[in-house]
User: What shape does this take?
Amino acid sequence: MSNAPLYDTIGATYTVTRRTEPRIAARIWAALGDARTILNVGAGTGSYEPSDRYVLAVEPSAVMRSQRLPDAAPCLVGSAESPPFDDQSFDAAMAVASVHHWQDPIAGLREMRRVARRVVVFTHDTSDAGWRHRFWLTRDYLPEVADLLAGRPSLIELARAIGARIEPVLIPWDCADGFFEAYWRRPEAYLDENVRRGVSVWARVGPAVEQRAVHSLRDDLASGRWAERNQDLVDLDAAELGLRLLIA
Assistant: This one.
């Protein structure tokens, strides 16, 4: 996890829009099975940490650590690639929406596998050639997102590294956690500065690309072009936009 500086930048308003989504949390917690001791890797502000089990968190960003609530799990400074724990120290290790920021995702996953008997990772599949076209924000406004993922391991490679099975996770239309794809049926949200500041993609594409995309989206919402292009989304309660659970 070499992106502590990135999250020190974007993390200041993270808790405004990034909260635990109960329906996704239920999937993650079910995947943890009967694990009683859990290591949360790249833990951020503590979203998705189950409150009824012992959790130890690892997070490199000081800004993110500072926003953990007083009753959150204890949190150490550390990286996914070198957790300071003995083999099989935990019943389970979990990582939620952080693998794509790790310096070496394969090494980090193998370390999770080493220190825990079960591994649960919430991530996204960008290895499908058509993934970028499934979500209107990347398809029509932010094609540059594809460049951010160049050279990263595919989902299949990540799963193979730890012998994981892959399960799809649908995004509810009213998702409480404001990650990149969360507002797929609420496009006006992407015009909100606070929403964008809670998503690392916007910081990574840079201010010029961000402003171009925001202006274009604003124009398309005002003209009705967005609604015309995406009328098939209006009646959907949940969308399949490439989010996945790896369970090993």
In short: Confidence is low (pLDDT under 50) at residues 5-12. The chain has 13 helices and nine strands. The CA atoms of residues 149 and 165 lie 22 Å apart.
